Amino acid sequence: MNKIVVLTGAGISQESGLDTFRDANGIWAKYNMEEVCTLEGFKKNPEKLHEFYNQLRSNLPKYLPNAAHIALAKLEQAVLKKEIEAELVLITQNIDDLHERAGSRFLYHMHGELYKIRCTTCDRRMEWHKSCFPYTSCPYCHAVTLRPDIVWFGEMPYYMQEIGRALSDCNLFVAIGTSGVVYPAAGFVNEVQGRAKTIELNLEHSMGTSNFDESWQGSATELVPEFVNYLLNAYQK
Ligand code: APR
To answer: Which residue ranges does the record assign to the Deacetylase sirtuin-type domain (predicted)?
Structure first.
């Protein structure tokens, strides 16, 4: 069986209009990551941190899935309908919902989701589409301890067990639009080394390029549909 693991990063959503993190005009060129992406930043200035995520959340509907998200959803459909001899695990570091809006039904948001919020008192995670403020109370336990359900620097990403299982079992690992700087995702390519073919699809060389068997340079909307079509042919029943 062909067992594919796809890891996506901010680069896949760039052509939808979303900022990446580390490109010249990226989020970390405009915001201080200590302030908006750490627990310490949240404790120091919760207003500022909530405002950052409120803005990202309220802007999200303006952006539409692009051809790369759509191609991955098409790949999932081909797997689910058993049109190809393959299994697929999609992992994203992105907190946007563009994979879902493109039609992907099964994916792991390892860094959390903009449309979710977590209460640190009752530990419930809930769907959340409006703004959140330091005084907003939890609809379940009423404590005013809500935080964005985002994995900040120094915190453990979600679904690591499921991801570990998928990596230990895959024979094709594909990373799309990620700079290969942030661990543990940046280390996935090393975890599968020797067992799986590894391919990177990215606008430019990344920190991880030399770890991949193949590195394709180009934009996600060009490369991903082409790559998915290649897989659909190669894995045809
Ligand atoms: N097509 C393909 N790749 C692109 C495109 C594009 N249109 N535009 C940019 N890229 C590439 C960039 O060249 C870069 O290598 O996407 C990569 C984006 O890298 P980052 O901005 O570092 O994003 P990512 O790797 O997803 O960041 C990882 O860092 O700050 C944290 O939690 C945040 O999940 C994020 C994590």
So the answer is: 1-234
